[in-house]
């Protein structure tokens, strides 16, 4: 089925684009460096990352090869919510929050800390957001 030009990007295209962006930022690459490595313009990389343009299978293969990840990496975390037997329909995962350079760096650094210090940082962020401490660990 053909898509209408004015339609929003497909959720899968947005998700794959965000995963490309997250990995690129995690590797410390610019859009220009990635573009050069896979033979497209940096504007095309921007469109991939926004999900505006779909990444073709061959380009996804080249991107995965350059970034040293398997192709399924770009689809991890995406699931269409489907109710199971006897379950009510649930909302799909919210893909609207894209990672930033800072959030990726924070994530990478926090993972290296012991669990006790991770909990302290979590409490601090919740406090900064005005949310109370959560008893879940």
Explain what this protein looks like in three dimensions.
- With 137 residues, the chain is mainly alpha-helical.
- The chain has two domains: 11-93, 434 Repressor (Amino-terminal Domain), CATH 1.10.260.40; 100-137, no CATH class.
- The chain has helices at 11-26, 31-38, 42-50, 57-67, 101-110, 115-128.
- The chain is elongated.
List keywords for this structure.
137 residues; mainly alpha; 434 Repressor (Amino-terminal Domain); 6 helices; 50% helix
What are the SSEs and their pairings?
Elements: H1 11-26, H2 31-38, H3 42-50, H4 57-67, H5 101-110, H6 115-128
Helix pairs in contact: 1-3, 2-3
Pfam family, one: HTH_3
Keywords: DNA-binding
Organism: Brevundimonas nasdae
CATH architecture label name of the largest domain: Orthogonal Bundle
Largest sheet: none
**Fraction in helix:** 40-55%
- The residue ranges in which pLDDT falls below 50 over 5 or more consecutive positions are none
Roughly what is the average pLDDT, rounded to an integer? 81
> Helical segment tally?
6
CATH hierarchy class name of the largest domain: Mainly Alpha
Q: Please compute the radius of gyration using only Cα atoms.
A: 18 Å
DSSP strand tally: 0
Q: What percent of residues are in strands?
A: under 5%
User: What's the CATH superfamily of the largest domain, by name?
Assistant: lambda repressor-like DNA-binding domains
- Any idea of the CATH topology of the largest domain? 434 Repressor (Amino-terminal Domain)
Question: How many domains comprise the coordinates?
Answer: 2
Shape: elongated
Task: Report the span from N to C terminus.
Answer: 45 Å
Q: What's the order of the H and E elements?
A: HHHHHH
Helix-strand category: mainly alpha
């Amino acid at each position: 089925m053909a898509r209408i030009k004015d339609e929003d990007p497909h959720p899968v295209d947005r998700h794959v684009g965000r995963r490309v962006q997250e990995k690129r930022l995690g590797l410390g690459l610019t859009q220009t460096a990635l573009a050069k490595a896979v033979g497209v313009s940096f504007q095309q990389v921007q469109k991939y990352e926004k999900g505006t343009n779909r990444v073709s299978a061959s380009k996804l293969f080249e991107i995965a090869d350059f970034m040293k990840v398997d192709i399924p990496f770009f689809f991890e975390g995406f699931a269409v919510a489907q109710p199971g037997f006897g379950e009510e329909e649930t909302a799909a995962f919210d893909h609207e929050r894209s990672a930033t350079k800072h959030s990726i760096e924070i994530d990478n650094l926090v993972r290296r800390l012991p669990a006790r210090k991770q909990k302290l940082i979590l409490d601090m962020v919740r406090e900064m957001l005005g949310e109370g401490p959560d008893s879940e660990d």
